[in-house]
């Protein structure tokens, strides 16, 4: 549905993600969930879209104004150049507040500072520690995250642990606003039959196949186990990659690589019907895949990190494994020998989605930040 928005009293531009209504990753989902709610509350929302990703380019969708900006289409430059151009454009408009996502866009806050535009940035995870950013890339993200704390009026983290890290590293007090969730009580079980799967006949991994999500460790541990179940791996990377090739070359009939699952109902069914969900994500705050697992009632087996401890309330809503295949193998054995414990985790998973993970509550907090920034700047 395409419509022009009502006359608003606050104008907010959102940039740094791929755009709207494009949904591929966590930031894109946040732009959609937050943008739509802000628009319904009378805010005039403008979202900057990566021009090359959109075949059709309507000026408005669901009352949200869309601006399509170009980028240098090279793997390491696409996102940054798109954000740079978007920030320049936004500074020449009459928006009251500019909201940026991704700490890699930290340096561009100097542009909005020059133009005296109020800004907030959601910096997400510890990008500089991710294995894919080696050498110069890691140095850039650490520097960019520091610049975000210098140039933006409000830094936003999505977890208490990330707030603590930013305080220790960069000596800045950020505001914690978590990522939201959309819980669901049921899913169409027939959707998993296309992979010849049945309810609770498989363990599940969902996420990009990158080293810091540790699918390799989970797969190695599973292969060493004597489980009769399958391990379903949902996700991929959009480019040729030796890490992914090595994973897919492992010979075991119990492994099932689905690639990307773009149908939300199919993905929901995979979550709902798994025996347990493995979460190996190592860096970052509130993780969207983990929120889905909680909201879809999964028994969760998570890598033991401070972020995962926070999300699962220190073991109340999941079990943990250390970062080695033997620990995964042991946890699989425990999970399969304790079906009642797994069922109890499924029954109580949605209770882990406290108020802070509610999208309407998340929107309330962002709106308060945007109004405060607008008022401060007169």
Automatic annotation (TrEMBL):
InterPro entries xref list: Glyco_trans_1 (IPR001296), Glyco_trans_4-like_N (IPR028098)
Keyword Cell membrane: no
Domain Glycosyl transferase family: 195-350
Keywords noted in UniProt: Glycosyltransferase, Transferase
Domain of life: Bacteria
Boundaries of every Glycosyltransferase subfamily 4-like N-terminal domain copy: 24-179
Gene Ontology molecular function, alphabetical: glycosyltransferase activity
UniProt EC number: 2.4.-.-
Protein's UniProt keywords contain Transferase: yes
Protein's name in the database: Glycosyltransferase
Top class in the EC scheme: transferase
């Amino acid at each position: 549905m395409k419509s022009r928005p009502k006359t608003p009293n606050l104008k907010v531009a959102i940039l740094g993600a791929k755009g709207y209504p494009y949904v591929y990753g966590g930031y894109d989902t946040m732009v959609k969930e937050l943008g739509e709610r802000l628009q319904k509350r009378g805010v005039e929302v403008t979202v900057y879209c990566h021009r090359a990703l959109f075949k059709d380019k309507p000026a408005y969708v669901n009352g949200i104004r869309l601006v399509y900006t170009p980028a240098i289409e090279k793997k390491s430059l696409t996102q940054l150049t798109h954000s740079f151009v978007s920030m320049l454009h936004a500074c020449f408009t009459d928006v009251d507040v500019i909201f940026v996502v991704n700490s890699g866009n930290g340096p561009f806050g100097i542009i909005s500072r020059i133009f005296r535009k109020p800004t907030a940035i959601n910096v997400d995870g510890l990008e500089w520690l991710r294995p894919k950013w080696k050498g110069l890339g890691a140095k850039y993200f650490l520097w960019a995250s520091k610049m975000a704390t210098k140039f933006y009026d409000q830094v936003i983290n999505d977890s208490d642990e990330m707030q603590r890290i930013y305080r220790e590293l960069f000596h800045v007090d950020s505001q914690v606003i978590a990522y939201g969730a959309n819980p669901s009580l049921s899913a169409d079980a027939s959707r998993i039959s296309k992979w010849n799967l049945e309810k609770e006949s498989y363990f599940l991994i969902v996420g990009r196949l990158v080293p810091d999500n540790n699918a390799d460790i989970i797969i190695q541990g599973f292969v060493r186990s004597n489980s009769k179940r399958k391990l379903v791996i949902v996700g991929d990377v959009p480019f040729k990659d030796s890490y992914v090739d090595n994973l897919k070359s492992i010979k075991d009939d119990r492994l099932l690589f689905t690639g990307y699952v773009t149908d939300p109902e199919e993905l929901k069914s995979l979550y709902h019907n798994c025996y347990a969900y493995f979460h190996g994500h190592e860096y970052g705050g509130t993780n969207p895949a983990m929120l889905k697992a909680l909201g879809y009632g999964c028994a969760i087996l998570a890598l033991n990190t401070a972020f995962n401890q926070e999300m699962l309330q220190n073991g109340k809503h999941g079990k943990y494994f250390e970062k080695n295949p033997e620990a995964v193998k042991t946890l699989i054995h425990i999970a399969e020998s304790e079906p009642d414990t797994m069922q109890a985790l499924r029954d109580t998973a949605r209770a882990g989605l406290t108020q802070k993970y509610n999208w309407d509550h998340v929107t309330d907090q962002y709106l308060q930040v945007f109004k405060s920034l607008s008022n401060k700047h007169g």
